[in-house]
Specification:
The complex is a heterodimer of chains A (190) and B (151). With 190 residues, chain A is of the alpha+beta class. Chain A is built from five helices and nine strands. Chain A has a single domain (27-189), classed as Glutaredoxin, CATH 3.40.30. Chain A has helices spanning 2-19, 68-85, 106-112, 127-136, 179-189; strands spanning 37-40, 45-47, 55-61, 92-98, 121-124, 141-143, 154-156, 160-163, 169-173. Chain A has a seven-stranded mixed beta sheet. The longest helix of chain A has 18 residues, at 2-19. In chain B, β1 (28-36) and β2 (45-53) form a beta hairpin. Chain B has one helix and ten strands, in the order αββββββββββ. Chain B has one domain (24-144): PCu(A)C copper chaperone (Immunoglobulin-like), CATH 2.60.40.1890. The N and C termini of chain B lie far apart (54 Å). Chain B is mainly β and 151 residues long. The chains are: A alpha+beta (190), B mainly beta (151). Chains A and B meet through α2 and α3 of A and β4, β5 and β8 of B.
């Protein structure tokens, strides 16, 4: 009984600590991000505002890219599956923004993205709109002048952006990011 | 008769070339090969492998081919000063005796284009490297969704 008196307050304290939401220590990046309007894979307008309410994993690429972009898509899908196992995937939104609107039409994104099984939103738009969003996120993409047999390619940056529930950028990752690191960071923002 | 003699002589010559000159590149091996699975609507896919020259003479790989692609290229990947990544044609791979060269995710890779069909996870696809001299060096590469942790 005496021991219980000592242990009980400790248990209560631990339970209360578990109830309170811990603030993530990931800093808010105020230089990247902002409002934008693009079009999703269903042809509906998509404003940056719609990113609010969920943690987003946002990245840029193009579907005719053979190496880096499918690799990033596959890795983001892996992150999503981990989060599904943790039961929190419904609070997370992967977002793919193409910088190749000529080939990555809404219809093509709609066919391409479901294969990754990560409930991904695909965004396209006019080149002007995409340039504006890319600028907001510091993304560089340059269409190669010489189109080979494979068609044209892009020279591009390949960062992945973690956005919090207020659509603020909290962290950037390289294309070969560690799955566990992103999962941990996402969970810290939930 | 002459035709038969010619045929036999040629077969013998080919066999001799294979056995004696190393043209068949029996000493060149492919390991850690795989293709990254992509959606069925993808126009391209990438392949990765390590090619090793176990022989005593140098080998120059000039290109690649695959049964599922109308065109297969060796692709280089460079990281530029501003951090962007640029792909280009890798014109050849020179392998001195004992040397290996790896085509790996995010780096130099095989690019399969004009896909006649998009092979899916679980399938294997024959991919061949074409040396400047001698026979193609081929291997069956598994189609995988993710990079094997062992590679």
């Amino acid at each position: 009984m005496g021991k219980l008196l000592y242990v009980l307050p400790l248990l209560v304290a631990l339970m209360l600590a578990g109830c309170g939401k811990q603030e993530s220590d990931l800093p808010v990046n105020t230089r990247l991000g902002g409002d934008f309007t693009l079009t999703d894979q269903n042809g509906a307008p998509f404003q940056a505002e719609k990113l609010k309410g969920k943690v987003s994993i946002l990245f840029f690429g193009y579907t005719h890219c053979p190496d880096i972009c499918p690799a990033v898509l596959a890795q983001v899908a892996q992150v999503y599956r981990h989060l599904e196992e943790e039961g929190v995937a419904d609070q997370v939104q992967p977002v793919f923004i193409t910088f190749d609107p000529e080939r990555d039409t809404e219809a093509h994104l709609k066919e391409y993205l479901p294969w990754f099984k990560a409930d991904m939103i695909g965004l396209t738009g006019s080149l002007e709109q995409i340039r504006e969003v890319a600028k907001q996120y510091g993304v560089v993409f340059i269409k190669d002048q010489e189109a080979g047999e494979q068609g044209y390619l892009f020279t591009h940056s390949d960062y992945i952006y973690l956005l919090d529930e207020q659509a603020r950028v909290r962290k950037l990752y390289p294309a070969d990011f560690k799955i566990d690191e992103v999962v941990t960071d996402v969970e810290s923002l939930l | 008769m002459l035709n038969h003699f010619y045929k036999k002589t040629c077969q013998g010559a080919v066999l001799a070339a294979v056995l004696c000159s190393g043209f068949a590149h029996a000493d060149v091996s492919i390991s850690e090969g795989w293709l990254r699975a992509v959606p069925p609507v993808s126009p391209t896919m990438a392949g990765y492998l390590t090619v090793t020259n176990n022989g005593a003479s140098s080998v120059k790989i000039m290109g690649a081919s695959s049964e599922v692609a109308g065109h297969t290229m060796l692709h280089s990947m460079k990281t530029l000063e501003d951090g962007t990544r640029k792909m280009g044609h890798l014109h050849h791979i020179m392998l001195e005796p004992g040397e290996s060269f790896s085509l790996s995710p995010g780096g130099d890779h095989l690019m399969l284009m004009k896909l006649q069909r998009v092979p899916q996870p679980g399938e294997s696809v024959t991919v061949c490297l074409m040396p400047a001299e001698g026979d193609a060096i081929c291997a069956d590469l598994p189609v995988l969704r993710e990079r094997p942790s062992a590679f």
